[in-house]
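Translate sequence into structure tokens.
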Amino acid sequence: PAEPTNVIMWIIEQGQSRGEIRPGNVKVLSALTLGAILHVPISRVYGSIRGPLVPLVDDVTESIWKMLSP
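Result follows.
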């Protein structure tokens, strides 16, 4: 199976080649993306985010797109 980091790097590379994702270091942008995704459930485990995470999907997605947009 593909490693999540490699999948995210591939997605970012594809987006960069089409101008949908800003130019930049693919490894750094991948790390930032994966960190943004993973930190939400980690924050829930430690209690700084309460309640279900599903209602936060749109906010997380929008924030990641703002980070990656050209």
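Note: Residues 36 and 63 are 9 Å apart (CA to CA).
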